Amino acid sequence: MSERLVVLGSKGGPAIRPGGPSPTASLLEIGGRRIVIDCGLGVSRGLVEAGMALPELDLVLITHLHSDHVLELGPLIHTAWTAGLKTPVEVWGPKGTQAVWDGFLASLAYDIDLRIDDEGRPDIRDLVRVREFGEGVLIDSEGLTIEALRVDHPPVTDCFALRITHEGRVIVFSADTAYFPPLAEFARGADILVHEAMHPDGVDRLVARTRNGERLKAHLLASHTMAADVGRIATQAQAGHLVLNHLVPADDPQITEADWTRELSATWNGPLTIGRDGLSLPLPASKPQRKSA
Ligand SMILES: [Zn+2]
Ligand SMILES: [Zn+2]
To answer: Of 60, 119, 229, 232, which one has the greatest count of Cβ atoms within 10 A?
Structure first.
């Protein structure tokens, strides 16, 4: 299996527009695992387009319960199930994730029961295990370590950055967060840091064309990170490669890759990739394990 990071959905916020990008979701293929990070609208389509067979789904991580990160969780697993999923799926998410899954199952009970009877499928309720997590180590087995750090995303209190390590490779996802300096320590030495980002000019343009613009602007400023500050985090973390995602705005033709790059030029001078749907990055080869002294 190739080891890669695929940005499936690169935009921040739940809206979709003609020809535009999808809300947040990523795929990390590492150490034989297929890890889906966040399940915004479009994640199932994104995985298929990325070449993943949906029945191979095995691990899903949800950073927080804003709909642009969780709306398609149930539909993804259900679609994998109708495509032939027979093996267990673990879903890790903050407090409330079990209720999201249970609510989805309740809403689809008619179809699920019908397909079990009519098509002889295994019971989807037995295949999925939801694990609610807080800060700390979620998983540490078979060389895969996943840790969570609570970040600053008001009014959501349970929002977690994720640090995923396998054979010396480290990939960190910021989740949604305001500028949060402790994230630099959490992301220390990451080979790839995937960080959310806002563009100041784009935010002004977005706010100008939105009905409740002032409230939207206040939320964005309190809960998300300007691109220049993302550069500060990446520099302090000594990240190997910075990938911007959860772009705000993501679909304003006036805000180009060059504009994002310029915004970061004063605070980050390492490798930079501006996220877009379908973007695939190979992971570095596994590194010899550092022995602890
Ligand atoms: Zn979001
Ligand atoms: Zn959010």
So the answer is: 60
DSSP calls for 21-60? --BSEEEEEETTEEEEEEE-TTHHHHHHHTT--GGG--EE
What does the alpha-carbon distance between residue 143 and residue 173 come to, in Å, rounded to a whole number?
A: 19
Which ligand sits nearest to residue 151's alpha carbon?
2
* Angle, alpha carbons 188-190-194 (nearest 5°): 110
| Alpha-carbon span 235 to 222, nearest angstrom | 22
Distance (angstroms) between ligand 1 centre and the Cα of 69 equals 6
pLDDT digits (tens, 9 = 90+) for 145-196: 999 999 999 999 999 999 999 999 999 999 999 999 999 999 999 999 999 9
Q: How far is the CA of 153 from the centre of ligand 1 (A)?
A: 9
Query: Distance from the CA of 197 to the center of ligand 1, in angstroms?
Result: 10
Ligand 1 centroid, distance to 289 Cα (angstroms): 34
User: What is the reported pLDDT for 206?
Assistant: 87
Ligand 1 centre to CA of 97 (Å) is 16
Q: How far is the CA of 64 from the centre of ligand 2 (A)?
A: 7
Model pLDDT for residues 91-127, shown as the tens digit of each residue: 999 999 999 999 999 999 999 999 999 999 999 999 9
pLDDT at residue 77, rounded to an integer: 98
Q: Which of 159, 217, 150, 221 is nearest to 183 (CA)?
A: 150
Among residues 100, 133, 25, the alpha carbon closest in space to that of 69 is found at: 25
pTM: 0.96
Distance 176 CA to ligand 2 centre (A): 5
